[in-house]
Design a protein that fits this description.
alpha/beta; D-Maltodextrin-Binding Protein, domain 2; 11 helices; 35% helix; signal; Solute-binding_3/MltF_N; ABC transporter aminoacid-family extracellular solute-binding protein
Length: 267
C-alpha cells in the first residue's frame, strides 16, 4: 500500500517551512474568556473514520492513521487524554463551533480562505492535491472528456469546493454538478461498479485506496485542481489549544518524531 505513495512522492511535509503562517491568535481583549480551557485534561478530536490513511478504522475496529498517531503523540506531550469522535464530515465546523461536540478537527483538514474566517488553525503540516481518478480501462483522459458524465466527490470537502470554483468544469458535468457522497469510499465504490465515470478527491486518500484495491484498476488524470495544505483546526474561542498543538508539532518535527510517524504511513 505504501509503495504507491512513495513512488508518487507527492506529500510534502510543510511544518516549519512557511515562516509561521498560523491562525491561532485572536484579540487580546478576548483571551481572558478562555482561561478556563487551560485546565481541560481531555480533548475530543473530530474525524471522518473512513479517511484513509489519515484517520480510519482497521479490520479490528481500532482507530488508526497518520493524523491519529500525530494527535496521540501531541496530546500525550501536552498531558491530555484524547478521544477520537467520528463525525459527519460535511458538518465538521458545526460540530466544532456550534454544537461543540468536538474540540479539534484533525483528519486531512484543508485550510481555505472561507475556513480561515471560522476556525483557528495551525501551521500547515502536509501538502495535498485534489485529483481526478477513473478506471484504468476508461477512455477518459482529461477534464474535457468528462463532459456530460457523472463525477462523484464527498459532500463538504475541499474537493467539492475545487469543483465548484472551476465553473466551466462543473457546468460541463451531467446535471451541472457532481454527485455527492457522505464518504469517499462510497464514491469510489460507485465508480468501480460504473455508476459514475470519475471521482474527485484528496490524492493522499485516493493513492492509498488504489494501493489497497490494486493500482492497475485505476487511472489518475494529469488534470487536477492544484495543491492545498492540511492543518489542525480548533474553535476561534480556543486559540490557546491551537497554539499548544502548533508548538508541539514543531517540537516533534525538530526531534524527529514527526518524520518517524510520516515514514510509518508514507514510506
Amino acid at each position: 500500500m505504501k509503495n504507491i505513495l512513495k513512488k508518487v512522492g507527492i506529500f510534502t511535509i510543510m511544518l516549519g517551512l512557511l515562516g509561521g503562517v498560523v491562525g491561532c491568535s485572536k484579540p487580546d481583549n478576548e483571551k481572558d474568556k478562555d482561561a478556563s480551557k487551560e485546565s481541560k485534561k481531555e480533548v475530543v478530536v473530530g474525524f471522518d473514520n473512513t479517511f484513509v490513511p489519515m484517520g480510519f478504522l482497521d479490520e479490528k475496529g481500532n482507530t488508526v492513521g497518520f493524523d491519529v498517531d500525530l494527535a496521540k503523540e501531541t496530546f500525550k506531550r501536552l498531558g491530555m487524554e484524547v478521544k477520537f469522535q467520528p463525525i459527519d464530515w460535511s458538518m465538521k465546523e458545526t460540530e466544532l463551533n456550534d454544537s461543540k461536540t468536538v474540540d479539534v478537527l484533525w483528519n486531512g483538514y484543508s485550510i481555505t480562505d472561507e475556513r480561515k474566517k471560522i476556525v483557528s488553525y495551525t501551521e500547515p503540516y502536509l501538502q495535498n492535491k485534489q485529483i481526478i481518478v477513473t478506471l484504468s480501462d476508461s477512455k477518459i483522459n482529461s477534464k474535457a472528456d468528462l463532459k456530460d458524465k457523472e463525477v462523484g466527490t464527498q459532500q463538504g470537502s475541499t474537493a467539492l469546493d475545487a469543483v465548484e470554483k472551476d465553473k466551466d468544469f462543473m457546468n460541463s458535468l451531467k446535471g451541472g454538478a457532481p454527485v455527492l457522497y457522505d464518504t469517499y469510499d462510497k464514491a469510489l465504490r460507485d465508480l468501480e461498479i460504473g455508476r459514475t465515470s470519475a471521482v474527485v478527491g484528496d490524492e493522499v486518500l485516493i493513492r492509498y485506496y488504489m494501493g489497497q484495491k490494486g493500482e492497475d484498476k485505476y487511472k489518475v488524470l494529469k488534470d487536477d485542481f492544484g495543491l492545498e495544505d492540511y492543518v489542525v483546526a480548533t474553535s476561534k474561542e480556543n486559540p490557546e489549544l491551537c497554539e499548544k498543538i502548533n508548538e508541539t508539532l514543531k517540537e516533534m518535527k525538530k526531534d524527529g518524531t514527526f518524520d518517524k510517524i510520516y515514514d510509518k504511513w508514507f514510506k
